[in-house]
Amino acid sequence: MKKHILVLSFIALSLFGSIQLANASCSLQSLKECNREGLLSIIIDLIKTKQIGTWKEYKNNELGFSFKYPSFLTQDKNNNNLFIDNNEVVYLRFKTIENIANYKIEDVPGAITMRFDLNQKKWTNGYSEGPIPKRMSGNIEAYLYQTGDGPWGTDIIAIFNSDYSKGVEITIDIRGDGDEKEYKSKKIDPSLILLGFKYLSAAEKLTDKNILAKFKATEIVSNNLPESIEFWTESYCPGNGFNYNYKFEGSDMYRYSFDSCEQGDTGSHGGCKACIMSKIKLIKSSECEGNKKQYYQVNGKNIFVQLEGVNNCDYYQIRIYGGGIDQKIEGHADLSFNNDYNFDGYKDISVLVDVAQNNSYGIYLYNQKENKYIFNEKLSELSDISVDANKKEIISFWKGGVGWWSQDAYKYVDGKIILFESYQCNNGCFCENNEKEMCPTHIVYDLNGNVLKETSEQKDILTESFGKP
C-alpha cells in the first residue's frame, strides 16, 4: 500500500504540481466518493503533511490560533510576531485582523488597495479589473496575494474565521543579500503554512498555564480569549495604591481594556498570605468599539484614556483623565506615552492624526506646573517623528518617492527646537564608484538655519547620529 501511495504521489507531483480541486464529499475516509482531482488532492495533502512534520509550532493561546513554520526560522527576541532566518533572507510575520470590514491589503502603499466585501464575500480593488487576493484551497477561509518575481517577493495570506468577524494575516518576505540559490532553497510554499494553521478550541485555551503568567494571574475565573478574560491577581484595582495596582505592559496596553475590578480577601484565590487580591476582567480593544477605556501609569500618575469613536471609528475624541488631569484631544487610536519629546524628564503624548506615506502625529508636552498636556505646533509639523533619548535629538523622516527623501535631526537650544543636521536624497542616490554627484547630501546648519557645510560622499555620514532610512 505504501509503495502504491509513493508511486501515485510521484505521478501527482510530476503531472499536476499543487492542484487541489477535491469534490466536496471526497475525503480520506470516503475515497469511493472521490473523482480524479479529489484523489490527487488527498495525495498531495498527505505529502505536504509529511513535509511540515519536522516544522516548529507557534501557539498563541491568548489570541486563539497556532501555525507551523520551517525549522530554519527563529522567533525574534524583540518582536514575538516575527520569525527570521540567520542570514536575514526570510521574514515570516503575523498580525491579527481585528475587524475584517476595515482590513485591507496594499500592493504599493497609496496605489492599489484591496478590501474584502463582507456582503458579497469577495475582494475588490476599486477597479473593474486588476490584482486581488486568490482563494486558497482547503477547509479554512483563506486568500493569497503575491508580489515580486522569481524567488524574490512577498506572499500575504489572509485567514478569516467562519463568521468573518476576525482573522490572521501571515506575511512571508524573501529578501536580503543572499544568492538566488539560497532564495530558492528557503522559498516557503504558502499552502504549507495554511495546512499547518488552526484555530484553537476553548479547551486548549483554558488548560494553558502560560495564560496565568501572561496576565500575572493566580486563578482564572473565565476565559473567552481573545474576546475577554477574568481572573484573580495579587494587586489592587487600577487607581488604588500606586506601587501595587494592576497593570499590563507592552502591546497588551493597546490590546485590552479594563471592564471591571473587584477587590477580594487578602491571600485568597491562590495569592500569598499577605497579598491584596483583585478580580479583574479585561475585554478586547477593537478599533471600532466606541467608549473604549485604557489605563496607564505615567509620570507617577494613574491615567485613563477614553476613546469615543467618530467617522465610523476611524477617528476618535480622546479623553485623558486621572491624577488631576481631565482634557480631550483628537486623533486615531494610536496614542502613546512612550517618549519625552522635550527631555524634561516627563513622558509626553503622541497621537496619530494623519495616516499617509509620511505619517503625522499630534505632540502634546506635559506641563508639570499646569498639570496638563499642551499641544506643540512645531513638533507636530514634523513627519514620522522619533526620539534619540541618549543624544537628546528629535528625528524626522520624510519621503516623496523612490530616491527622494530627507532625514533631519533637531536639538533644543535655549528652549527652542533647531534643525542642525540633514541627510537628503534627491536623485535616486545610487552612490557607486565614488560618483559623488549621485550620493546622498549631508548638510550642517547654524543656529539661524544657514548652511555651514554641505558634502556629498559615498560614506554614510550620519550613521552614528541617527542611521540610514
In short:
The chain has 469 residues and is mainly beta. The protein has helices at 2-16, 36-51, 180-185, 190-195, 202-206, 210-214, 252-255, 377-380, and strands spanning 56-60, 65-69, 74-75, 82-84, 90-97, 104-106, 113-117, 122-124, 134-135, 141-147, 153-160, 167-174, 198-199, 217-224, 228-234, 256-263, 277-284, 292-298, 301-310, 315-322, 325-331, 335-336, 349-354, 360-367, 372-375, 385-388, 393-401, 404-413, 416-425, 441-445, 451-456. The N and C termini lie far apart (58 Å).
Task: Please give a structural write-up.
The protein has 469 residues and is mainly β. It is built from eight helices and 31 strands. It has five domains: 1-54, no CATH class; 56-202, Protein Transport Mog1p, Chain A; 213-283, no CATH class; 286-381, no CATH class; 387-469, no CATH class. The strands form seven sheets. The chain has a seven-stranded antiparallel β-sheet, with no helix packed on it. Strands 26-27-28-29-30-31 form a six-stranded antiparallel β-sheet. The termini are far apart.
